Amino acid sequence: VVAETPVPLPEPVATSHIKISSRDRVIYPEAGLTKGQLADYYAAVAPIALRWLGNRPISLVRCPQGRAKQCFFQKHDAGSFGDDVHHVDVREKDGSTEPYLYIDSLDGMLACVQMGTIEFHGWGSLVADIEKPDRLVFDLDPDEGLDFEAVKKAAADLKDHLADMGLTSWPLLSGGKGVHVVVPLVPRVEWPEVRSFAERFARALAQAEPDRFTANLKKASRTGKIFIDYLRNQRGATAVLPYVARAREGAPVAAPVTWTELRTIDSAKLYSIRDAATLIERAQSRALQGWGEAAQALPDV
Ligand code: ATP
Ligand code: MN
Ligand code: MN
């Protein structure tokens, strides 16, 4: 029996000067969960979430009237979030520059929640070095008929293929239907190279097992298969970040798990915003130490 070594606790929940209005507004009608409860969830997990959410361009899914009403995806800073939500100027394809959002604090997170944000999605690069991704994400999207078993098996296969190339990866339950396979990178090469690697990797898998996988974006080619969405790895694309609440039924959250755990998990919606304490405890557990971390670069292929 190996003795458990204590893992350092995250910083205690900091207080915030952000005032959440309409705390009693129900934003998850099927679960009866309110804006105040969402804010409390984010305040509780901020110490573990900011490690992923902080200091990278983000897009927000805002649902001011709750998840069952109209939601919209917001990429740019309209200047309405206050001083705790920052912006970074990003050059667009047409040569213009747009202010993208980023946050680096609990106050920033809550300022977004106050404005009706439920979900936070992140670029694969940090504000400090926007052109050089610090991670790859393979977003596994099962076709309607496929169960979570198929998704799990696909994720584990991706892990093995990545490991064959010397790359360590981790599974993230999306809080929806799929699993994201996250591959940390030292930010060294730029987007085109990373995207090219991701695309070639996805296409090679689809070619090797065309009955299980497709790398083709077209819905029609996905029947009965898992779409390996490598397009999360192009400049400007985003993916949901760890501990983010989803604007979906039951208030599920995106949650890091281990490869071993994934084998016995039967849903991508295992955790919800009711599980802040569990998620914090898990983040401190030995099993999840080092999740999403590896000093590694893409192989030359
Ligand atoms: P699921 O497991 O149910 O597929 P998901 O988060 O992977 O959940 P996807 O629909 O596969 O959802 O989307 C993958 C990512 O693409 C999202 O996490 C998000 O960052 C991005 N995305 C989704 N919808 C939009 C949109 N309307 N505009 C911009 N980006 C989007
Ligand atoms: Mn997906
Ligand atoms: Mn997708």
Automatic annotation (TrEMBL):
Location of this fragment in the whole protein: 510 to 810 of 810
Protein name (database record): DNA ligase (ATP)
